[in-house]
Amino acid sequence: MILIGVDVGGTKTTALAVDLQGRVLARVHAGAGNWEGIGLAAAAQLYATIISDLLSHANTHSDDVGAVAWGLAGLDWPSDEARLRPLLAPLTPRATLITVNDAFLPLRAGSHDPFGVGVIAGTGSTVAGMAVDGR
Fold this sequence. Notes:
This protein is an alpha/beta fold. 28% of the residues lie in helices and 35% in strands.
């Protein structure tokens, strides 16, 4: 089983595949993936390509994927998630699918605590926070 993380931004997109011991199996990069900037059809194509390339570089296939966490620039509202999840789910149909705004990525990757503030200062900028009580 492998786990995948994808950071989708306004300038670049990076995907990483790891095994259950945390060993990096593959890392791939692509261009801008924010659907609000490139359009939904172009975003869907980029998402499909980056997952296909990642699985190829990791020498595996979608049935081996246990979970995929997507940090997506442009996923700001439930209506955005309703647009994006149907594009993402078929790419790894057996995997648990996690989708969050990319501002939440530093809260998990950059902190041992389940609370804090994440700031994205890239092509666009955004801030996300999580209180100690989960709000």
